[in-house]
Amino acid sequence: MDVAWIGCSIVLQGYITMIDLGRLRKIRSDELELMLQWRNEPSVRENMYTQHEITLSEHVDWWRKISAIERFKYFMYEFQQVPLGIVSFSDIDGTSSNASWAFYASPDAPRGTGSKMEVLALDQAFKVMGLHKLYCEVLAFNKPVLRLHEKFGFKVEGLFKDQFRSSVDFADVYRLGLFASDWNDARNRILDKLTNPNRNQQ
């Protein structure tokens, strides 16, 4: 399935309410340059394993190969019909029912986009793809993404010391994981916080 959720359902005070977080959809061939433009932004690539500026020919060749492999899935995130980011699932293991995931947003994306993307990614992984577990790796200096994942219930499962060599120095890598049961338990609470950010301040 190429599309996750156009809206998300949340139970509040006994009623089912729909909230619009955007949607994940198939990436079109005419969006490859836009995807590359975001991926080459310094704020994006400095937090990736591949940190050099990727050429269009490299990108197109990579896309042609990756699109043919079933264990990789890439989605465009859009909100109100405006493309704002990329969500990916890799190393999808049907036998063990798990996968790795990652995302990046447009540099022009409004505040809060990352949280919306994460909700849709988790729903895609657990409700659409039916996975048991989702995991990811985050460079230790990428503190905002570490905090974001932990806010959604991801737990640190390992720390690999000096695992990655950037253009500056060696860096640690965190491995984080989340189970479907934990997301099911936390989902309504997290959606409530996203839709009512001032609730806890009242």
For this structure, what is the CATH homologous superfamily?
Answer: Gcn5-related N-acetyltransferase (GNAT)
Number of helices: 6
What is the CATH top level name? Alpha Beta
- Poorly predicted parts: 1-6, 9-17
Question: Helical proportion?
Answer: 25-40%
Give a written overview of the molecule.
By secondary structure, the chain is of the alpha+beta class. 32% of the residues lie in helices and 34% in strands. The chain has a single domain, classed as Aminopeptidase. It contains 6 helices and 9 strands; from the N terminus they run E-E-E-H-H-H-E-E-E-H-E-H-E-E-H. It has a 7-stranded mixed sheet, sandwiched between helices. Strand 6, helix 4 (113-128) and strand 7 form a beta-alpha-beta unit. It is globular, with a radius of gyration of 17 Å. The N and C termini lie far apart (41 Å).
Keywords summarizing the entry:
202 residues; alpha+beta; Aminopeptidase; seven-stranded mixed sheet; two-stranded antiparallel sheet; 32% helix; 34% strand; globular; disordered N terminus
Concise structural overview:
The chain has one domain: Gcn5-related N-acetyltransferase (GNAT) (Aminopeptidase). The relative contact order is 0.14. The strands form two sheets. Strands 3-4-5-6-7-9-8 form a seven-stranded mixed β-sheet, with helices on both faces.
Describe how the helices and strands are arranged:
Blueprint lengths: L7 E5 L2 E5 L3 E4 L5 H8 L2 H4 L10 H11 L6 E7 L2 E12 L4 E8 L7 H16 L4 E7 L3 H9 L3 E11 L4 E10 H16 L7
Parallel strand pairs: 6-7
Antiparallel strand pairs: 1-2, 3-4, 4-5, 5-6, 7-9, 8-9
Helix pairs in contact: 4-6
